[in-house]
Amino acid sequence: MKACRILAGFLAGCLFGAGLVVSHMIDPLKVLGFLDIAGDWDPSLAFVMAGAIPAAAIGVALGHRARHPLYAPAFAQPPRQPVNARLLTGAALFGAGWGLAGYCPGPALAALGNGAPGTAIFVAAMLAGMAAFRWMPAR
Fold it and tell me: Model's pTM, two decimal places?
């Protein structure tokens, strides 16, 4: 059973990474062009979302009908917590980083295969930020 979970996770990750590559989400200039709505806007990533939203909706609908995932005893539920300053600060930092660099975590990891030094620097900074977050007190 554990081997099936690992294989299913690996295949899902490969599919996700392939989707990022095919949609050009690993190209920071493409992402920044999409985010530049006041300048030379590139709407092509809107088509990626237009295809992804119905596919995700089907998956969610099927998930609601299932009693549990194929390789787990129960669905993982996110904790219900109120919106607070820490969440808003994290969301703002995520958005600012995405807007400045053109990367978010998934595409950045997938883009490491391109060998661009800027991508490696971004991933190193991202990992350092994740480590710093773990060490910060939750106030």
Answer: 0.75
